[in-house]
Amino acid sequence: YLCVNATVFLRRGVLGGLLVFPDARVALECDDGYTAVFDGQRVHGMTQLRPLGEDAYRLSLTYYCPMRGEG
Question: How many CB atoms lie within 10 A of CB 34?
Fold first, then answer.
C-alpha cells in the first residue's frame, strides 16, 4: 500500500530543518506555512536545527493517509 504524508511546517527564528530525501539527493526548505505532500514510505528526515533566540520554534504537523491500490 501507499502512505501519503501531508506535512505543514510552522517555524520562527530557526535555521536548518530542511526536509531531506537522501536516496534522491534532495533537500527542501520548509518555510513557515509550507506544506509538503510525499510518499511516506520513502526514506526522509530533516537537517539539524539552529534556534536564533529563546522564542524560536519549528513544528511539523503530519497527516498520514494510507491508500490502497494495485501493485
Answer: 15
- Using CB atoms within 10 A of its CB, is residue 20 exposed (0-12), middle (13-18) or buried (19+)? middle
| Predicted model pTM | 0.82
With a CB cutoff of 8 Å and minimum separation 6, the contacts of 71 are none
CA 3 to CA 6: how far, in whole Å? 10
Tens-place pLDDT, residues 17-71: 999 999 999 999 999 999 999 998 899 999 999 999 999 999 999 999 888 765 5
DSSP 1-69: -EEEEEEEEEEESEEE--EEEGGGTEEE---TT-EEEEETTS--EEPPEEESSTT-EEEEEEEEEEE--
Q: Which three cell numbers stand for residue 30?
A: 520548509
